[in-house]
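Loading example: each entry is read as two labelled lines plus one structure line.
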Amino acid sequence: MSDTEKPAPIEKVSIVISKGSLDGVYPGLIMANGARAEGIEVNLFFTFFGLDAIHKKRAEHIKAATVGNPGMHMATVVGALPGMSAIATHMMEKKMTALDIPSVPEFIEFISDTGAGIYGCQLAADMFGFTKDDFVEQVQDIITVGEFYEMAAGGQIIFT
Amino acid sequence: MSTMTIAGNDIELNDEGFLVDPNQWTEEVAVELAKENDIDPLTDQHWQVINFMRKEYFEKGTGPTVRVLGKVSGVSVKELYQLFPKGPAKIAAKIAGIPKPRGCI
């Protein structure tokens, strides 16, 4: 490629969300939404604790981690106090609402409306004893890792 | 930077194909830019979004993101993506002759 030639634009991404904390879930959602805004094809794949983000009952209760999270700038013993995670989550949610960042369930619905595919991981669902009925209606299917790679063919994979 | 000629007028475009000067925009320009972005013809619903984009831009100095469009343009997010499959805010801004909206949500 010469210096003046522009690289080919990204046309497809598959984003894996593997964590169930606030800071584990949002970056993947924001990247998925941003990709759709650019007209990029998107598949979202939720695995392990990330499944909480698409779980009917748990999606509304995604919390910020106050222990083992140096980014919080909070001593571990303080972060471990009862209610600390709820307070931190509440503070963050306030800031996010001010920036018009949707709640997790609303964001999933929005991203689904933009035409992104939303999938859960079969093995993780088996591990936690979840079935498709436990997940929000936007979840198209529960798929294996092999099916994920088939779906991701021809695009980039982002693991979060 | 490139130039397109519509009805005898030279319209300046930036590297991404957005109008350099939103005041150079006319409905003919919109039709031509839509064709270049594989949208032909422009339906009433396309125009509803395009006119909303221009209104927002001139009122607020920036075009709306998809989220804002879905909330206030009167066109749902699903429909927006049917109208502008390659990205509603981005492509509608291009056709509306305004700069690409900035914003992560």
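Residues 12-56+102-159 of chain A form a domain with the Hypothetical Protein Ychn; Chain: A, fold (CATH 3.40.1260.10).
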